[in-house]
Amino acid sequence: MRLVLERRAETPLALRIGSPLLAVALTLLSAIVIFAALGHDPWRALHIYFVMPLSDSWGLQEVAVKATPLVLIAVGLALCYRSNNWNIGAEGQFLVGALAGSWLALATHGAPDGPWLLPAMLACGALGGALFALIPALLKTRFGANEILTSLMLVYVAELLMDWLVRGPWRDPHGFNMPQTVIFEPEATIPLLMEGGRLNIGTPLMLLVVALMAVLAARTLKGFEIRLVGEAPRAARFAGFSETRLTWTVFALSGALAGLAGILEAAGTVRQLQPAISPGYGFTAIIVAFLGRLNPVGCLVAGVFLAITFIGGENAQILLRLPLDVTRVFQGLLLFYVLACDTLLLYRVRLVRGAAA
Amino acid sequence: MTLSRRSLMAGAGALAGATALNGPAATPALAQGAPLNVGFILIGPVGDFGWSTMHDQGRRRMLEVLGNRVTATQVESVAPPDFDRVATQLVRTGARLIFTTSFSYFAPTQRIAPQHPNVMWESATGTATGPNLAIYNARFYEGRYVQGVIAARKSRSKTIGYVASFPVPEVIHAINTVMRGAWSVDPQMRIRVVWVNAWFNPGREADAARALMDQGCDVICQHTDSPAPLQLAEQRGNVFGFGQASDMTRFAPRAHLTSSVNNWGDYYAERARLLLEGNWRPADTWGGLGSGMFRLAPFTNMTPEEVSEATRIRDALAAGTLHPFDGPIFRQDGTQVIAAGQRLTDDQIRAMNYFYQGIDVAMP
User: I need a labelling partner for A255 at 20 to 30 A (CA). Which of A131, A134, A338, B109 fits?
Assistant: First the structure.
């Protein structure tokens, strides 16, 4: 008697919704076991981990601040992945966006001028990210280069560019030689939305983008084109859709969103450029995109969930004196379970009696 | 470049005012008899075997000394962009004394301290105090001087390799002091520097050390926190190195010469005690070998003559009869900073932004 996995002809809706929930449930179950093994009251630990970040205005704002770049990048990536374009370089597009937007902030530093500055910075950031993302698109459509490799390699180019700028030409002359720029002028800083927290206009912007993307994906011809090219490229060709043009479109869009996230982070949360400006948002967003089933609203949910595990992990360090590694174990477990549950989506488990292997 | 501390402070103050980042929850008053909650923010992982490990041990020592009068909370590997959130969360969960243990946190600590006037802040290797902000550091350069002397005795290629983190004054004056110590033995000595641009990154630290060894450096100094450069020296053989922050003999039994061993525990216990008794002041503490804030690990892989020379110099530094920043001091380009008979002040040392002659690298 043995278990076999059989490919499903189609996936029922209940399973598609149930599978990520099952993954979260299994993660929580594992969390309970781990907390108990570490000698902590599991309920209190879970409360600190998953409920406390959401239990007051400050915590909610911090979760939103953390989720904003993740979701912005992830919705762009979701479009790419749906159309079979594998943009792995969002981290680089994030950094180039931050650089492009900050260039304006630094150029006007000391004499900021007018309310046009901030919108112009955001536009520059999006444009920078988009142009940087078009490099792998060009290499793919013109030379057939694998975009997974080129986009990933360009991340290192962006990191080194950032490193060089903040250590060299853009370094703060009064910064004790630390590799960082001046703190931006208030005019070049993203305005905060509320007293007593760090929520800024980046979050409503992100929600707007999610809504637009949801409409684009579900209700427009472009959205249909993206799905069709991804799922049935031959049919898409017969329908007259150009794969090349679509590759350019989705790379530019996802690059622009990553770049926007970059300049929002630079001018909002960090208020200067420094090499450590991104704790790997561009890579974590890949996880968010898949966790969210490559669906804009799903990305929003997944981004918020991942943000909670970050903030909850810090709370656990502070209140339970748990080591940082436990947080990382949870994030790893979550991914592991998501992928495992995906198997249930695509395959059916069947018990086969008596058959030889 | 002259450092204008005033302009830095004014900038930080204006920023704090402009963004009005006030924590919503008032800090709970310390009830009579309730333990003092002390927070620690670490730049690296507790297990870096160097800088952050020693702050962790300092925290343990403080708990040992003060027993149930204090509790301690520690957050490790906090990237500078995450500092504000972690510090605010520590305040919100009741910390009344917070040690921010990296120079990378100095500017953020200066920015956040005025927003929480009821919380006392202490910035390790910071360079300016505030109404509720103290700074503390050890005169590690005294140990660097001894390293320079030993390196000059050990090196056959007359070239010291230096794995450096960031070109901040703390690191620059350390490199200069190694040069000074080495010169006191042999004016032919030279130093090569590689910047890693990280406080803790074992991979890059090892790469830097490898590059230096390939260029002929046979004694490696490091101003980064992992044992990786020392381990590489052990692998190579015929290359020596010094441990950083903790006694790193066990990582390189055949390459290790000595380590600078930090001891923050007594300072932490003292500061917490002062706050408990209501006598905490925003002090500027900079303790040398004589203060017990750090010591040198036992000398290894050295001849008895080398050991006795190193011991003599260490003791002279501790007693204050030998001073590493006595003139004459010359910059890389040969211009004189101070003449013989003069000595750099503490503020001049803390703002040092030039290399001495004999250091084979341009200021980045």
Answer: A338
